Amino acid sequence: MSKSLEAHKKWKGKIESKVRAPLENKEDLSLAYTPGVGEVCLEIAKNPELSFELTRRWNTVAVITDGTAVLGLGDIGPEAGMPVMEGKCAIFKRFGGVDAFPIGLKTKDTEEIIRTIEIISPSLGGINLEDISAPRCFEIERRVQEKLNLPVFHDDQHGTAIVSAAALLNALELANKEIDKVKIVVNGAGAAGHAIVMLLRDLGATNIVCLDSKGIINKKNATTPSKKEIADVTNPLGLEGDLKLAMNKADVFIGVSVANCVSKDMVRSMNDKAIVFACANPIAEISMEDAKEAGAFIVGSGSSKYPNQINNSLVFPGLFRGALDAKATRVTKEMMLAAVYTIKGSITPDREHLLPYTYDEKVHQDVAKAVRKAWGEK
């Protein structure tokens, strides 16, 4: 039995609820429950917004999944996804002070998921969508946000994009390169890849080449709305071909795709001081050892076994803390950029330490402050 499996058997769950109100005597019960609570209910009935002041709603986030894209394990179902959701909720509480609760939905139907989130929303202050497969995740996030005046955030998209961008800015600084002058290859056009492309564009990248399983995405072969969006802002030279062609003379490779798709020769074909972020889990596009042996200047991965782990746990606790404190009704581009620059600037980077560690509490506090300020300046 692995250490993790043994630990989970011992824990029997990574989170639990806590009673905040004293319940020691008759008076305590009359205040917290009946009859005193009736007056509170009537006040909220007159003004539902008071639910953010008179209940824990102001600090409550649902971590919602249908279990269709869990880690690198794929469609394993909502029950099997629960250990990941509980872990995320534990990180929410530990580093953001956010009360997060895992909700697994036994449906893959887009309309059912959207409607379910809508009808449970009166209990919540925010929605964290998690491990929902593309392209359904794009529509679910967009439509849920349209329906609710709550921050809605698909962490696999935007959390991954934010932490990848922060790591890349520090890597480019170490390589003495500028984002608007480098060629960036993004392999993978799903939830993470799409968000990474869009955020890098917002940061000033002008030459991005994005690939899906069929090759380089361009305006001729983009068949879905999300890939058409990618085609509109990438591939300025109109390249057609495979990953080998795309990586030739590239400065940056960001992989959010599949195992072992990058060879040493592909890395050797990149420009001097190449940056390789091979983030596929559980097996990377290329191992850190092989990428370094092929001449990569900086290598990052999605694994905690190596330096430069690019992990979205640096993002969501502080981002939601800031959004909840600001009483934000959505997560804006400005809030995401504020998180990028805060995480980037929280460390003096070196080639094997591009990002702060998740357990650096100050980073989460600083992200929360920056996000709160960005909402106020919208």
Task: Tell me what you see in this structure.
By secondary structure, this protein is α/β, with parallel strands linked by helices. The protein has helices spanning 3-11, 26-32, 37-46, 51-54, 78-96, 110-120, 136-147, 155-175, 191-202, 225-233, 243-247, 264-268, 288-293, 316-325, 333-344, 361-376, and strands spanning 60-65, 99-104, 126-129, 152-154, 183-187, 207-212, 215-216, 252-255, 275-278, 298-301. The longest helix is centred in the middle third of the chain and has 21 residues, at 155-175. It is elongated, with a radius of gyration of 22 Å. The N and C termini lie far apart (51 Å).
Main features:
single chain; 378 residues; alpha/beta; Rossmann fold; six-stranded mixed sheet; four-stranded parallel sheet; 10 strands; 44% helix
In short:
This protein is α/β, with parallel strands linked by helices and 378 residues long. The chain has helices spanning 3-11, 26-32, 37-46, 51-54, 78-96, 110-120, 136-147, 155-175, 191-202, 225-233, 243-247, 264-268, 288-293, 316-325, 333-344, 361-376, and strands at residues 60-65, 99-104, 126-129, 152-154, 183-187, 207-212, 215-216, 252-255, 275-278, 298-301. Helix 5 packs across helix 14 (316-325) and helix 8 (155-175) packs across helix 15 (333-344).
